[in-house]
Specification:
Blueprint lengths: L1 H21 L9 H13 L1 H4 L17 H6 L2 H10 L15 H12 L18 H11 L1 H4 L16 H6 L2 H10 L21 H13 L5
Helix pairs in contact: 2-6, 5-6, 7-11, 10-11
């Protein structure tokens, strides 16, 4: 019996160590990559995205320090956003200016703002009716994101921008539409949440399908 208890305690300890390791707690304050990424951020990104990453810079910038955003975007897409930018907007392409190491360090620094893991309830397949999606978009989204997703400075992201559509998944767009971005003007839209809009899951999939269609050659 004593040996069984000892074995059980060992398994518990191993489990705790594994959980801590997977949560990256030890990387939060001590990672050289995060420290190096902060230097790159302070030099190049603060003016738009702000000291705390909440979009409070002198120039307009997306709120990066946002738990819904950070829980929906993979590191690969963060990397691509930085490297390729958004042509014709205030977000330049940093690929020619930063080394690979600087790009990865900057991603590590931004990821360090993620303080919790959120389990979003997202459909396995996101497919809908773009005609209905356009109607819903015009009714609920156009005020900020403008007609046909053109976007407006300090109002809403240009959803029809080729680089946004290329490096953003349908799942990301669905989550942003359904759950919004806390501490921003982008409120939740999914029925049952606190937003003014109370859309069904399929309604949101229709909107995503319409937004995706904006990148198709007419």
């Amino acid at each position: 019996m004593k040996k069984i208890l000892i074995g059980f305690y060992i398994l518990v300890i191993i489990g705790i160590i594994a959980c801590i390791s997977n949560s990256k707690i030890f990387l939060k304050n001590n990672s050289p990559a995060i420290a190096a990424g902060q230097k790159v951020y302070n030099k190049n990104c603060v003016v738009c995205h702000g000291d705390t990453g909440k979009g409070e810079g002198e120039k307009a910038g997306t709120a990066l320090n946002n738990q819904n955003f950070l829980n929906s975007v993979p590191d690969k897409n963060l990397y691509n956003y930085i490297k390729y930018g958004r042509e014709g907007t205030g977000m330049p392409d940093y690929g020619p200016r930063f080394s690979e190491e600087e790009l990865k360090n900057l991603v590590a620094f931004i990821r360090n703002w993620q303080t919790k893991n959120i389990d979003f309830d997202v459909p396995k397949e996101i497919s809908g009716n773009p005609v209905n999606g356009e109607k819903l978009y015009n009714l609920y989204c156009q005020n900020c994101h403008m007609e046909a997703g053109a976007g407006m400075l300090r109002m809403g992201t240009a959803l029809s921008h080729p680089q946004f559509l290329k490096y953003t998944t349908d799942k990301q767009i669905w989550i942003s539409t359904a759950y919004g971005r806390e501490e921003t003007r982008m409120g939740p839209s999914l029925k049952g949440l606190d937003g003014v809009r109370q859309l069904k899951k399929q309604d949101i999939s229709d909107i995503v399908t319409y937004i995706r269609s904006l990148g198709e050659v007419k």
